[in-house]
Amino acid sequence: MYYRDPRPDTARKVGLMNWISSLGTLRLLLMLAALACIIAAPFANGTTYVHDWRLLPSVIAPSIMVMLIFAIPLDICMARIFMSDSSDSEKARLQRAIYIELAVLSALTLAWTPFMLKMMDAWPFD
Question: What does pTM read for this prediction?
């Protein structure tokens, strides 16, 4: 149950932190890595840089993005498996995690689609 403080701003912070911590540490780190890749996507232009800050969006973020494209659906699948034999509160927690992961996976895919189309020479706007 949530801690109820008479001040509404404190109760909301406690509820949000409780909601975030209900995802679990590894799932939260997975989502943070995906959000970092989403933020790096607009800076990836298809040119490889190896000597300054552009190494992150040109080399590191695309490779991590590919790993996340496979890891997030695997985590969704495992959450569905764990839902089959759990309590109602655990089912609700896992269902919330699945919705969050689907949203992040969709955003990750949409953010990196222009880069992937450029890499495959299928970008229609050149």
Answer: 0.82
